[in-house]
Amino acid sequence: MVFSSLFFVFAFLPVTVLLYYSLGKHLRNVVLLAASLFFYAWGEPVYVLLMGGSIVINYRIGTLLGSLGRDASQRRKRQLVLILGLVFNLGCLAYFKYCGLIISTIASLGGWNLQAGAPALPLGISFYTFHTLSYVFDVYRRKVKPQQSLLLFALYIAMFPQLVAGPIVKYAEIESQLAVRSTTFPEFNSGLRRFLCGLAKKVLLANNIGLLWSEVKALPAAEISVLLAWAGIIAFALQIYFDFSGYSDMAIGLGKMFGFRFQENFRSPYLAQSVSEFWRRWHISLGAWFKEYVYIPLGGSRAGKWKLLRNLAGVWFLTGLWHGASWNFVLWGLYFGIAISAEKLLLLKSMARWPQAVRHLYLVLLVLIGWVFFEFSNLTDGLGFLGIMFRAGGQALIDQPALVKLKAYAVCYLVCILAASPGPKKAALSVQRILGPLYESAVSVSYGALMLWTTAYMVASTYNPFIYFRF
């Protein structure tokens, strides 16, 4: 089940909200957990058992860690329990997500013909595994106390707003909210509006601009001009942004409707002035997770230049691998690791003197090249597409098909670029000053119209991919 489906918007969500608020506060967590398990079982009826097993085992690991003391023998036992927790969680992730990659890599290196197939990838396993790992790490470090209620721990792992595509919510961030939370009507309304904004991003923007990329990618290389290649990869950059930031908006809005406060996951990343800044604005929760649980424990930037490079290489290797079981994702991660390393050691001081437009152009160029590595699982195809972008094969700069497509998608391009900027928020503030007390009524009417428009698209369109569901 995806958030941008008619069933979710007009059946699952209304029924869940009705039951949540009508059955009394003492049953709200039960209702939310039951709804979350149903939500997951709708698309993964077998793998809900895997998630249930993960919940029970990690709950037990937490209680064991909490029961052990601080003397030397107890510390060794705690370390052993931690290792067992890591082996279980990372082992499950490795088996279901990376089994095929491991087998194919071993076969290619050894020249063997291995035919074993990879298991189906459970939805959201990368996200909920990081949730369980953050809990185990934080209990081990005594940053949080182990959760004594299996119900509340299960709710933390299985909560449907952030279950299958984030944002990654660390246990410490919502520990207190699991047991006690409240929602006023203005807060619920704010969450509903945030959900509608995310839904519109996904359905009206990501899906429509994504059609251009799907058309370009389907063309034979000989039929793609330089202009069309750039138009296509820019379309993909906009699609993946609105796809994932739209999902994050929906998740944050849904959480708010049920009394939870999730951290922001995007802050206008394409307005960044460097690659380092871009990754402080893009998928913020993933970057924060790797920083806290990998980069800082390795020593961060405190241990000298070479260890800094080692730490960055390790983090970005894992970041790429987290995104998918294919070597193009590893290459994509290392590409950004190299770019960030170069900035930290060589470029940042000189970049401060560059004109702002030059810094922004530099960032956009590097990010677009990175999206090519991300999107093409076949390295040869990816390098071939980069060759077209930079006219390495003598392709035409501009041709008639490119102009036709640009004309057809011109309005969509313009709306997407504006929506990816702070422009809409600034315009809303200006309108608020003009309308004064009438502003709230105008906003309510606007959200109603947006819901009708989005619904019409969901009814009529068959193109509704969710890029980050494959992670």
Question: What can you tell me about this protein's structure?
Answer:
This protein is mostly helical. It folds into two domains: 6-181, no CATH class; 187-460, no CATH class. The chain is 72% helix and 0% strand. The chain has helices at 6-22, 28-43, 47-67, 72-110, 125-140, 150-158, 171-179, 185-218, 226-257, 275-281, 284-295, 305-323, 327-351, 356-375, 379-389, 400-408, 410-419, 423-435, 439-460. Helix 6 (150-158) packs across helix 7 (171-179), helix 8 (185-218) packs across helix 17 and helix 9 packs across helix 15. The longest helix has 39 residues, at 72-110. The protein is globular and about 70 Å long. The two termini are 15 Å apart. The model has no long low-confidence stretch (mean pLDDT 90).
